[in-house]
Design brief:
With 94 residues, the chain is α+β, with helices and mostly antiparallel strands. Helix content is 26%, strand content 15%.
């Protein structure tokens, strides 16, 4: 009985955490919504071969799995690259 109550409590506590993480990864960055990574490379901002920085300081790394189109994934903590950390307005992927 105690186990089922504990499991139900933990499940209810996990829902807001998942929603918060989802909100962070789907934030509203205007630069990120003007192009599709699968169809063309990003424009504007600071573009290198594998890193893209939007004008609102969101840093993305280019990734590509075999047989799939390229994607740009948010770098949450790019301090080792000398770039600012991601903020709430950065989208998770482009």
């Amino acid at each position: 009985m105690k186990t089922s109550i504990l499991a139900a409590t933990l499940a209810l506590m996990a829902a807001p955490v998942a929603a918060d993480i989802q909100g962070f990864t789907t934030g509203l960055s205007n630069d990120a919504t003007v192009w599709n990574a699968a169809s063309r490379a990003p424009t504007g901002g600071n573009v290198s071969e594998s890193i893209y920085v939007t004008s609102d300081n969101c840093s993305y790394r280019k990734t590509q799995a075999p047989g799939h189109p390229p994607m740009w994934i948010l770098i949450v903590n790019p301090h080792h690259l000398g770039l600012p950390n991601a903020h709430r307005g950065c989208r998770g992927t482009l």
